[in-house]
DNA sequence: AATGAATGAGGCTTCATTCAT
DNA sequence: AATGAATGAAGCCTCATTCAT
């Protein structure tokens, strides 16, 4: 589909760039069209409306990322290895694409609730994957057997998300993937001595 | 001051209610004024502009909360007790005020970057408090001595924040303060067996 | 009246100063009240509304000036002497009071048509005086006997007014009363050789 | 350009009409758009903001007039003939377009100082032309050789302007171009006998 | 499939005026 | 006579979307 309709991805990539550079509220459709090298009206041949651009953007960028990761996770055996992979990949994806990181961590969150609920739907796959890893780890005896999976998943996702956001807000001064091991260790062992 | 200028808090409370019920982008100044029972122009006797209402809202509600908590934290002795208090209080404040929770977790995040940076400034006090608790716990031997304080703080804040947001997005179906102990335990001991 | 109600002139003088320094559209009633050292509401004990301040301002400042000049003109004998006096006095009044000059030449003209018609009413006395001087000069043989009094008056007033306005717009760099003789000569003899 | 962008002149002409009929402060953008038969937003495809409409209005109407007159003046030989042409044309332009006369003499003067300074810039061409005519007349011996050019120009412009304004304020009861000869004679010979 | 000129709804803020004290 | 907190009407401009070409 993308090859047959090359302008589709062209517009999405333009949107990421424009939003990252101008901010969500300064990213008018006309600006995205200009950056994509198409007319304003052309946008509406590929997307229903502006919101659809943003949802599609998230779906394309994160959806593909999640699918790919689900594949790779299968190749790991222990739950800890799987969790390590998720963290590493998450940090690597955004650590290598500053524009995408700015858009997902800061700009896209300025959208209205309706859009954010749709974004959450896309994230469901990610969260389900975390749940699976957690459930497997409990079964295998790696994790506590009385672990509250939902809370644990919120801790994992909340920690990853907050770590990326802080990194973005600090102007990406340090290397994000470098933090993977320490974050994994924190999530697995907590902060206490021993 | 608030007693001498009753309309100040009156407007802020109205803003919380209006934003929680109508959403950030559907909360016109005129709507807030009507809810507060004052004329539109009266708003501008107490606030510089619309953005100032939102910053003041966050400052009053969260700022006071943070100050109060800093006092209470001093009365606890161990770092774990202090962390337990913070989590409990945080969940209790927002768990008891659904409107405020909606506003802080969902609506206020739709504001522009400039406003969010000002909100972050107010949150600094909270984050500093967490850092202090972490540093003390390291000194006292409660926490790992090689703990990365910044990452640990991001885990704690990210977990608390994500837990509240999930609770809000699930229409507050369950009791938030009830989760305090489990969340504390997760943060302290991690997810692994033993 | 002015001595019994000292705040009346106090407010008018404040208005001149505020308008000269801030411009017509930046001269809010509250600013004038503050400059006059009275409360906003007090203004309305002395003036019907904001427009009334401006009309009164012009009436007091120009009205008195016109009356005084009408007296002084009587003491002169020839029409040319009378015209010379008018020009000299006009230039001197405004040349010595830069604030008043700014207000009458620039700021007050930004008022709406209704106000300007009222200002024109006050100027009637001035224009009538010019008409009288012109009529007398024709009778005495000083001026052309086929002189169109209305046109001649428009030339005289237009020239004086334009001269003052240009002086104000040039930041009052040169001395205005110094120009009196040359302006008189131009009006009397025109620009042609001989 | 005007033929290729017909809406540009359409909007300017609408602005003249609306301002002449409703007054400067009652001429909302929406009213001008309605009169021009376009949507409000269309205004902003052709003008930066409301002020820009007014500046453009003056530039188009007076600017073109000045340019045309500069051409025609060249065809006259004596300074007096040139001055006669200027007066005649000025009176004819505004005498034939009552709406434009109302706008330039009354309404546009209510604009703020910033706008009026821009209008003055456009008038510079006109004033320079007067200066040139005066300088040439001095050289040719038509005018006094000790003539103060600046003052003479202020007399000429002030007289023309005041004559038009009086005509407008008197509801254009008499014929303006008819006054040209008498005004010329006054400016050239002054008011005195012989 | 592509264009881009045209549309028109919608809200923050100012400030002259009032009136209870 | 004096205060000053409160009122509330009113308009410029942006930008997502459409549609004739």
Automatic annotation (TrEMBL), chains A, B, C, D:
Keywords: DNA-binding, Repressor. InterPro entries: Homeodomain-like_sf (IPR009057), HTH-type_Tx_Regulator (IPR050624), HTH_TetR (IPR001647), Tet_transcr_reg_TetR-rel_C_sf (IPR036271), Tscrpt_reg_YsiA_C (IPR013570). Residues 5-65 form the HTH tetR-type domain. GO terms for molecular function: DNA binding. PROSITE patterns: HTH_TETR_2. This is TetR/AcrR family transcriptional regulator. The lineage of its organism: Bacteria, Bacillati, Bacillota, Bacilli, Bacillales. It comes from the Bacteria. It comes from Bacillus amyloliquefaciens. It holds the Pfam family TetR_C_4. Residues 28-47 bind DNA.
